[in-house]
Amino acid sequence: MAGHSKWANIKRQKAVVDAKRGKTFTQLSRAIIVATRSGIPDPTGNFQLRTAIDKAKAAGIPNENIERAIAKGAGTFGADNHSLEEIRYEGYGPGGVAILIEALTDNRNRTAADLRVAFSKNGGNLGETGCVSWMFAQKGVCIVQEVADEEQLLEASLEGSADYYEMTEDDIAEVFTGVENLEILQQTLKDKGFQVTDVELRWIPSNYVEVADPDQARSLLKLLDTLEGLDDVQDVTSNFEMAEHLMALSLT
Length: 252
Description:
Blueprint: H1 3-17, H2 21-38, H3 47-58, H4 63-74, E1 85-92, E2 98-105, H5 108-121, E3 125-126, E4 136-145, H6 150-159, E5 164-169, E6 172-177, H7 182-191, E7 195-205, E8 209-211, H8 214-228, E9 233-238, E10 240-242, H9 244-247
Parallel strand pairs: 8-10
Antiparallel strand pairs: 1-2, 1-3, 2-9, 4-6, 4-7, 5-6
Helix pairs in contact: 2-3, 2-4
């Protein structure tokens, strides 16, 4: 299985039992703020906001927190969050693995400093803008649970103009499409009776770096975990391929 898909699964598993709920709440609240600012404060007419709210509710964020984040994004709660900006950072991990970091920050110097320390302590280095992003293309992804009939999934995916899908576990699929088509694909899959449990934007690598050495694998997974633990970091993507028994080191 491609490293990006397996790592995405592991991240979801870890999120379920993540003790750092404050970090998760902050990430999801910031995503709501930015989604509100990028469109309108009404989720029925703002797909990005609707998706962010769904994820926040799934994580157990109280409705009043969600409403407060929407108000902040709309500028009706206070001006303190208008300084938040989305920034993409790039770098290399152990073994030359390419890493993309998406951050929301009100202080890019602080964020860059934190990232630089995380890279240097874990065998990597923070690079210049553009050093690895050319290896990635952004796609929309629908996570589909309880897939009983792969033929029906294929038909529904084609009808929803999906590019392709991957079965990541026995009955779980990830269906990929162009970013602009994600809402249409999600609705098509739902209309066909499929259980879409999550939708997201994801950077997909065009090439992969095989990581086979256990020490190198451990260092890489520690780096990714450290990066994801930083307050300003929203998401981390990389282009590694790794055997499942090595990837399991991230859960130990």
